[in-house]
Design a protein that fits this description.
Elements: H1 15-23, H2 28-38, H3 42-59, H4 65-85, E1 89-97, E2 100-106, E3 111-116, H5 125-132, E4 139-142, H6 147-158, H7 177-187, E5 193-196, H8 197-203, H9 210-218, E6 231-232, H10 246-255, E7 260-263, E8 266-269, E9 275-278, E10 283-285, E11 300-303, H11 306-311, E12 315-316
Parallel strand pairs: 1-4, 5-6, 10-12
Antiparallel strand pairs: 1-2, 2-3, 5-11, 7-8, 9-10, 9-11
Helix pairs in contact: 1-3, 8-9
Length: 336
């Protein structure tokens, strides 16, 4: 991993190395480390893409102040014309995934929608989308423009051979800046790990906004790509996923090697079979370790395996020594 700098992302990776990669300034060793990290961290992959886009946009701007003002006026004119004459085009297709039918929607900017569809009436999903996203103005069309490449990557994720979906995202169906903030924080929870709704609220600096965080996740327009399945209740219960589709949440967690058990509310994560990561210290413990007792929810990750903990840059705790052997039979990711 690149040399850690002060400007470090929540996954432990150096933001400066992503910026240098976008600028083409990283030496070969750092380039290799960045590329390796991007395969397991979709949040960093998205951030690198954003930096790259900004680089090209800045390179095309006029150098003078007068030129910048003229460019802004021209851009505003074009945007106004587009607003009057057209609506964003959302191309929808239905994919019969191992999880059941999924409706995928794309625009010219990227993937804007992933929706679970009732197996009993898959063709009705498009009509419900119009109701669910009535506040957004878009032209709905059926098609399969570029969707095959998307579904191949999703299929690879579901069978455990791919840990990150590097789909380019269009956030046009997100409801507010607050929801964007919540969903960005959810994207930074690594593959094969979990946090709680309270933990996510603390991570965005809004510890009293747990209900609002849950609502933002409830209306996530891009489940799986934005992994709201990695957020659970304070007691470990699987709640809130896609309204009443808790079994789907359980199945997607199983893909990432996270065990669940039946509970009074349906299902819960098996906390006694998950390592506890301390984000601030970048260490991980066996469950019940005294070193992990009393830590804030925003500082805690539940991690599926030692391998996963090491992949995201966590070192073994010096008290409980989780590196001395597994405390249960760890499973490989992938369910289908």
């Amino acid at each position: 991993m690149p040399t850690r700098k002060r400007n470090t992302r929540s996954c432990g990776f150096a933001e400066d190395d992503l910026i240098a990669e976008a600028l083409g300034e990283n030496p070969q060793g750092i380039q290799q480390a960045v590329r390796s990290h991007l395969t397991v961290c979709p949040a960093c992959a998205q951030r690198l893409e954003q930096y790259t886009q900004v680089r090209f946009q800045l390179g095309s701007l006029p150098a003078s102040e007068a030129g910048l003002a003229a460019a802004r006026r021209a851009l505003n004119t074009q945007l106004a014309q587009l607003t009057r004459d057209t609506r964003p085009r959302l191309v929808l297709s239905l994919w019969h995934s191992p999880l059941g039918p999924l409706r995928i929607g794309t625009t010219d900017k990227g993937v804007a929608l992933v929706a679970f569809v009732s197996p009993d009436d898959p063709e009705s999903g498009a009509e419900r989308l119009g109701e669910k996203f009535a506040q957004f103005s878009f032209e709905q069309a059926e098609g399969n423009e570029g969707h095959t490449a998307l579904t191949r990557k999703l299929e690879a994720y579901l069978n455990g051979s791919r840990h990150a979906l590097d789909w380019v995202i269009d956030d046009g169906l997100m409801r507010s800046d607050f929801q964007r903030q919540v969903l960005q924080a959810a994207r930074e929870v690594p593959y094969g790990s979990l946090t709680t709704y309270l933990g996510l609220a603390e991570r965005i600096g809004r510890p009293t906004a747990v209900r609002a965080v849950a609502q933002a996740l409830r209306y996530n327009p891009l489940p799986i790509r934005i992994p709201c399945h990695r957020i659970v209740g304070t007691t470990g219960s699987l709640t809130g996923y896609a309204g009443n589709k808790i079994a789907l949440k359980r199945d997607i967690l199983a893909v990432e090697g996270i065990p669940t058990v039946p509970s009074r509310s349906g299902f819960a994560i098996a906390q006694d079979r998950l390592y506890v990561g301390r984000q601030a210290e970048r260490t991980f413990c066996r469950p019940g370790c005294e070193a992990s007792q009393g830590i804030r929810a925003g500082n805690r990750l539940f991690i599926a395996s030692r391998t996963r903990a090491e992949e995201i840059g966590y070192a073994p705790c010096g008290v409980c020594r989780p590196d001395r052997g597994p405390f249960y039979m760890e499973t490989e990711p992938g369910l289908f």
